[in-house]
Amino acid sequence: MTKRFETDVIHHGYDSKEHFDSLSTPIYQTSTYTFANAEQGEKRFAGEDDGFIYSRLGNPTVRHLEERIANLENAEAGLAFSSGMAAVSATLIALTKANDHILCSQGLYGCTFGLLELMREKYNIQSDYSLMESEDVLRKQIKDDTSLIYVETPINPTMKIIDLEMVARVAKEFNIPVVVDNTFSSPYLQRPIDLGCDIVLHSATKYIGGHGDIVAGLLVGKEDFISEVAMTTQKDIGGILSPFDAWLLLRGLKTLPIRMDRHSLNAEKVVEQLKQHPKIKSVHYPFDKNNPDYEVAKKQMKLGAGVIAFEVEGGKEEAQAFLNRLSFIKLAVSLGDAESIIQHPATMTHAVVPEENRLSMGITDSLIRMSCGLEAWEDIWNDLKQGLDQM
Ligand SMILES: Cc1ncc(COP(=O)(O)O)c(C=O)c1O
């Protein structure tokens, strides 16, 4: 029987009868697995016996999480990593060879940008950045040696939106995969595979974990691709997730829909208020009706999620002074937690991006990124307001 998303986040792929009737998935805290005899060991290594071998190659708690995230993203298979960047790097290395080209969205998480620069220096893998505003623009930017299209949407931290259906349609003409970093939406709000994209990854540190207590990454896609990554760039580079962290993610997933509803509602309310404050220059939020990307956001996202970007009057000094005046909103770099979290991308998450690229991505010195937490929206707004009123 097909279940709805809200049921699958809690039940998919788990049968308590297989685990001594334990309601909660057990944590298989083991590094290795015993073989009944030498012949069984040989068969496991030959892939003729399904049993586990060693926890870098697979673990029952982690496997359960991988099956669940694949189901939630409507993908064939999933793989869990020790960080979002482990998932990003394993994917990019698996899909490229020296001298290839990657086409990226104009705006990426700072460390993803840093990794692409490293790949440029070491392996001459070139990357270009695009707003992907139309099919024609995209067709012109795809080269003979383009091996993949890499998209963040909403883009971190400017909240620009890329039309995933359109990108997937054009990529199919050229037979190249589209990889989507779905961190800012979570599968509850946006499912890129349903829109024709091929591979989806997450910094599960954010909404999927949801409680600010794990660093983790997730990857989903076709069975063939996921097995290839599992047996190459994950097995041999080794960025695997621990069973305990997998368990925390399974726990976080159970409340993902209700958390995302609340994050989104809080963000919508705070955006309405921010737009009216005289010290605010601009506000960027996918589900703001004045946002030029609003129609595309509505088409592919269920709600706008919890992250807002806004520019305050003045420059870096004014932005930092504002941040220093906040009371319970935490000054920290992450997002998707119960706590509201705020940061200054130009000097924090995107400090590694050279100024010229940073400005072309819309990351000015007065831009601030805030992740609306699960607190009462009135309290979040009051804290922001007292900081703005003193400017
Ligand atoms: C959009 C996005 N992708 C990837 C990452 C990297 O994830 P992690 O910090 O879990 O390695 C981040 C981290 O902030 C992010 O915001």
Automatic annotation (TrEMBL):
Ranges in a coiled coil: none
A Pfam family matched in the record: Cys_Met_Meta_PP
UniProt keyword annotations, A-Z: Lyase, Pyridoxal phosphate
Organism in which the protein naturally occurs: Alkalibacillus filiformis
SUPFAM superfamilies: PLP-dependent transferases
Cofactor list: pyridoxal 5'-phosphate
Enzyme Commission number, as recorded: 4.4.1.11
GO molecular function: methionine gamma-lyase activity
Catalytic activity: L-methionine + H2O = methanethiol + 2-oxobutanoate + NH4(+)
InterPro entries assigned: Cys/Met-Metab_PyrdxlP-dep_enz, Cys_met_metab_PP, L-Met_gamma_lys, PyrdxlP-dep_Trfase, PyrdxlP-dep_Trfase_major, PyrdxlP-dep_Trfase_small
Superkingdom, taxonomy of origin: Bacteria
Name of the protein this chain belongs to: L-methionine gamma-lyase
Family assignment from sequence similarity: Belongs to the trans-sulfuration enzymes family. L-methionine gamma-lyase subfamily.
UniProt keyword annotation of Nucleus present: no
Keyword Lyase belongs to the record: yes
